[in-house]
Design goal:
The protein is an alpha/beta fold. It has 16 helices and 23 strands. Strand 2 and strand 3 form a beta hairpin. The structure holds nicotinamide-adenine-dinucleotide (NAD).
Length: about 500
């Protein structure tokens, strides 16, 4: 059976710990490979290699670093089909969706070509008598990314592209469920001209994560995953004096106002609720029709669409809507929530629990599910399901819908569908959620804006990618210089001011 190791110092290496995790084919349920789980010796070796490589890289001019990104982007285009196939094979998502996963990462690499401009500091001439002041941005050293299974191409690239463009070395600890693509990306960076030792992929589980959190040479950590682990990584990393940003789980609401174009809203809900089998942190999992009449009209249009979703393995062609869930555990968790929703009194209008694919009976497939009459005390409303399950919560008016979204503990994304500009503007201004869509169901900001949720969807001050990516992976130094040309003031014992 294929064994996937690590990528350290510019090459693939086998794992030495003797510990492995199974990688499943989600469509068949079979174990298709194993991934090595690093021990602390392997991690420490990668970190010391990264430390040594970083010194020269930091001294490389930013244009050269940008050119590596430029070449990397070309290679991603060249290998797009190969990357998408490897991604779908381990994750289960459709090929078009896998390509989107690669492209959303590639766009951040494109943004990082702007490193020479983005790393410019500021300069003030004549800040005082004979005094100039300027600031520079310097890399942190060795930084790390810990990433989830659901975007095995995009999220690693969101982390390592800005970090490397800023002059850091990088340790990537990807998800142990789909580790092939992160290693392929590291190989492409190498081919693009990145020197050895700067991008190391260390596969592993909690042991590797804890090693990263406690290692004195790791200066910053970017984490993406579930909220419980995000909080753990944030508190332990911060306690160890590191710069940490952690992005967690989500429960994204979509308000449908009585004046919305319902056909457009239904299309949006179908794509955003069920795409990637709902395994997206920006998936819409709660629909809030405003008013009973809107709710009835919405359910009438939505129900047949959910009943007719096309579910298939990625190998069946490109016209499937979504594929299987990633693992048996994920399947059991999602099914558990559907059972709980029924028990708690929600109306299961479309039940996907008995869905079975001929020839793939052991795969982790579950059909699309649609709940009506969900209330805010139910677990299917409160918790992230991360499956193809949409909950409809009926509200009587706009304020009630707004309050519902605002009261939820998660604050990743939210959307409103309306034809009224006043309502949309009021919503975008008052909502306490990080990413807002107006007639856009999945408002994932483009690479040159920043991505990040509020409340228990995000921990730390700065967002991912865009200008914040460059801020997170650098620190600012401010230099005050004086060329006195004959000015002699004598010793000054009070704090210097410009009075
Ligand atoms: P996860 O929390 O299980 O795993 C994320 C990472 O943490 C992995 O690398 C994993 O190996 C590691 N990890 C898992 N358990 C650990 C432990 N006990 N101690 C230390 N490290 C541990 O998340 P997942 O299932 O891979 O991904 C799905 C979750 O990620 C969902 O909650 C989803 O909403 C979230 N997500 C959030 C965003 C965002 O930007 N907010 C984006 C994508 C996914």
């Amino acid at each position: 059976m294929e064994q996937i190791g690590h990528f350290i110092n510019g090459k693939r290496v086998a794992g030495k710990s003797g510990r492995f995790a199974d990688i499943f084919n989600p469509a068949t349920g079979e174990v298709q490979a194993q991934v090595a789980l690093a021990n602390s010796d392997e991690l420490n070796e990668a970190i010391s290699i990264a430390c040594a490589a970083q010194v020269e890289w930091a001294a490389t001019n930013p244009q050269k670093r940008a050119r590596v990104m430029m070449k990397f982007v070309q290679l991603l285009h060249r290998d797009m089909d190969k990357l998408a196939e490897a991604l779908s094979r381990e994750h289960g998502k459709t090929i078009p969706d896998a390509k989107g996963d690669v492209i959303r990462g590639l766009e951040v690499a494109e943004f990082c070509m702007g490193a020479p401009h983005l790393l410019k500091g500021e300069f003030s001439e004549g800040a005082g008598p004979g005094i100039d002041m300027h600031s520079i941005r310097q890399p942190l050293g060795v930084v790390a990314g810990i990433t989830p299974f659901n975007f095995p191409a995009m999220i690693p690239m969101w982390k390592f592209c800005p970090a490397l463009a800023c002059g850091n070395a990088f340790i990537l600890k990807p998800s142990e469920r789909d580790p092939s693509v992160p290693i392929m990306l590291a190989e492409l960076m190498q081919e693009a001209g990145l020197p050895d030792g700067l991008l190391n992929v260390v596969n592993g589980d909690k042991e590797a994560v804890d090693g990263i959190l406690d290692h004195q040479d790791i200066m910053a950590i970017g984490f993406v995953g579930s909220t419980a682990i995000a909080e753990y990584v944030y508190s332990r990393g911060c306690a160890n004096g590191k710069r940490v940003q952690c992005f967690g789980g989500a429960k994204n609401h979509m308000l449908i106002m009585p004046d919305a174009d319902l056909d457009q809203a239904v299309d949006a809900l179908i794509g955003a609720g069920y795409g990637a089998a709902g395994e997206r942190c920006m998936a819409v999992s709660v629909a809030i029709p405003v008013g009973e009449d809107t709710a009835d009209r919405l359910m009438e249009k939505l129900t047949p669409r959910v009943e007719n979703l096309k579910i298939a393995p990625y190998t069946a062609g490109d016209d499937a809507d979504f594929g299987p869930l990633v693992t048996q555990d994920a399947y059991n968790r999602v099914k558990g929530y559907i059972d709980a929703g029924v028990k708690e009194g929600a109306k299961l209008v479309v039940d996907g629990r008995d869905f079975s694919m001929q020839g793939y009976e052991n795969g982790f497939f579950i059909g699309g599910c649609l709940f009506d009459n969900v209330t805010k005390d139910m677990s299917i409303y409160k918790e992230e399901i991360f499956g193809p399950v949409l909950s409809v919560v009926r509200t009587q008016n706009y304020e009630e819908g707004l309050d519902l979204a605002m009261s939820h503990e998660y604050g990743n994304g939210v959307a409103i569908f309306t034809r009224d500009g006043d309502t949309a503007r009021d919503f975008a201004s008052r909502i306490n959620i990080g990413m807002v869509g107006v007639n856009v169901p999945i408002p994932v900001p483009l690479a040159y804006y920043t991505f990040g949720g509020w409340k228990r969807s995000g921990f730390g001050d700065l967002n991912q990618h865009g200008p914040d990516g460059f801020r997170f992976y650098t620190r600012t130094k401010t230099i005050t210089s004086r060329w006195p040309s004959g000015i002699k003031e004598g010793a000054e014992f009070s704090i210097p001011t410009m009075n």
